[in-house]
Amino acid sequence: MENCVIQEITYFDELKELCLQANKINHQNADNYDVDKMQKRWNNYHIFTKLMIGDEVVSFAGIYDYGQNLVRVADRLFTFPKYRQNYLTKSIANPLKPALQYIIPYHTHWALDRGYDCFFSVQEFKKRNSLIRLTKQLHTSLGYRVLPGMYATCNPVNPKCIQNISATTDTIHLAQVNKK
After folding, report:
1. Is the pLDDT score of 180 beyond 60?
2. Is the pTM value of this prediction over 0.85?
């Protein structure tokens, strides 16, 4: 396994540089890393972290405050292409799993130590089985379970906001949305 280290990003200017890189890469959520949008969100993050191998950034993500003692871990998670799985499969060949091995556990411990309930999410109902597999692979001490149905993590009119949720609690205050 690689020798990875998580470091906190304490200033927006450091995150800005990473967002500029992420926003240029062709992927469906590139718009999530728009610098102006991220700057507007910055004050709602408890922490923002990056996963490093030596001097190279592997991934970055934050812990976003949803109010009422609920936080989203691995929010705006971005993994640079060199370290990504090519697709979500039942047998994952790449030994480095940034979200599973580092970011979700680190963020969850940070939040639980401060009394927060946590969740992470995956958009699109068709990716639900991927979320179930990921949740099963996390250490049981983190306490995650996949909640039934889909939830609005932002504006429910936006299809990208309707997501599958894995949480450390059985109930969250986000709106549940019927999705077939």
Report:
1. no
2. yes
For 82-121, the pLDDT digits (tens) are: 887 655 555 555 577 899 999 999 999 999 999 999 999 9
- Closest by CA to 100, choosing from 70, 120, 128, 126, is 120
Chain mean pLDDT for the chain: 90
Longest Cα–Cα distance of the chain, Å, equals 45
Contact 166, 120 (CB under 8 A): yes
Let me know the angle formed at the C-alpha of 90 by 88 and 92, rounded to the nearest 5 degrees: 70
- Residue 106's nearest CA partner among 93, 94, 120 is 120
Q: Are strands 70-79 and 117-123 parallel, antiparallel or unpaired?
A: parallel
CA dist list (Å): 15 to 9, 27, 84, 95, 171: 7, 19, 20, 26, 32
Cross-strand bridge partners of residue 7: 50
Cβ–Cβ < 8 Å for 118, 73: yes
**Residue 8 and residue 49 in contact, taking contact as beta carbons nearer than 8 Å:** yes
Q: pLDDT confidence of 1, banded at 50, 70, 90?
A: very low
